[in-house]
Amino acid sequence: MKRFMFSLLMLAISVPTMCVSAQQKYGAGPLEFSSLKEWKRVHRPAIMDFFLNDVYGNYPQKQIEPRFELLEQSDKALGGKAVRKQVAMHLEGMSTPILLLIYQPANVKGKVPAFVCMNFKGNHQINIDPEIIISANAPTGKDLGTDAPRGAALSRWPLEEIVGAGYAVATIYRGDVDPDFDDNFQNGIHPLFYRAGQSKPDAEQWGTIGAWAWGLSRVMDYLESDKSIDHKRVAVVGHSRLGKTALWAGATDERFAVVVSNDSGCGGAALSIRKVGETVAKINKSFPHWFCDNYNKYNDNEEGLFVDQQGLIALIAPRPVYVASATEDAWADPEGEFLSALYASPVYELYGKKGLSVSKMPQPEQPSLDGDVGYHIRTGKHDITLYDWQQYIKFANKYFR
Ligand code: GTR
Fold this sequence. Notes:
This protein is α/β, with parallel strands linked by helices. It has helices spanning 2-18, 36-55, 159-164, 174-177, 208-225, 241-252, 280-286, 310-316, 334-350, 386-400; strands spanning 67-77, 82-90, 98-105, 112-117, 168-171, 229-239, 258-262, 321-326, 373-378. α6 (241-252) links the parallel β6 and β7 (258-262). Residues 240-241, 265-266, 278, 283, 286 line the site of beta-D-galactopyranuronic acid.
């Protein structure tokens, strides 16, 4: 009897520490736990559930597998330095395919690693290459686009540098997966997954960021099928809203071996609790389609968040993650981005990895590349530049070369 009472007592003591009730919160501080086992068994699932149910929304249960059609291939791209491939990813029920554009180093033996990165305005804006097929969904404007002519985003896509470093670049246009405006989820991929009678996602179902992340996973499906690419050495990179997307894709799809967030800000790497620059209420007002409806619970209520965005970074552990900021990007709260990386670091250490190697925000152009959590702040505006890419290549090289 005594023994029974003792066991009951032990149970009463141990249970509250081992399961996380809805009232308990991790908040916005460092994520420190006593063991890897506890992280994996208790905290990681609780944090994942929170991001699924209350932030980006759950992915649908229904599986749709794309059919891949190679539309075009040339080994004379980028002045002969690259092989270009263009693949249509057809989804049953969608009238237009997701167009995948790949540049990979020419004349190499063996499989190459890759950066997967979604683009803002259509594949044709990443380079002046006249062979890039323009998506039916892309904003082309008059004469191939006042809005996004060929090469409009050239500075964001230093292809020669990336391909020259031995990497493939694989990109899709966000609008091929889901348009970036509030259309009540009538266009894009959401309707493909509705149950009979459903006309928009439920409060805990995915918004547009979730859909974009799903699209990045379909790119990974393609890469797994391409024998010239090493699908075990794939980094997912994204800038700004697509940086939020890269983090979410990295958290939910463990096939991405390295994850990079460039100036991802609110709803990305930045801690929400600080309310510096963009806030949860502001982002939900301007972009009501990005997150799931439940995320509105945290408008002007950041204290109510079960865990802050450091939890998102921790979900990527033990895979290497890199967070980057820019000095003139106050809207994205550089310090909040840095602190998330720092506060997720203890989880990396539980895996025997090295977290961020600095505990104070570094000076501009002083990248912190030693740890498995990397960080830099660059001088300048909200953008993704050659300097940013050079750090991502160095960081990826640590794992892929
Ligand atoms: C801004 C938005 C940010 C960021 C940015 C972008 O308007 O407030 O969250 O995502 O757009 O994607 O460039």
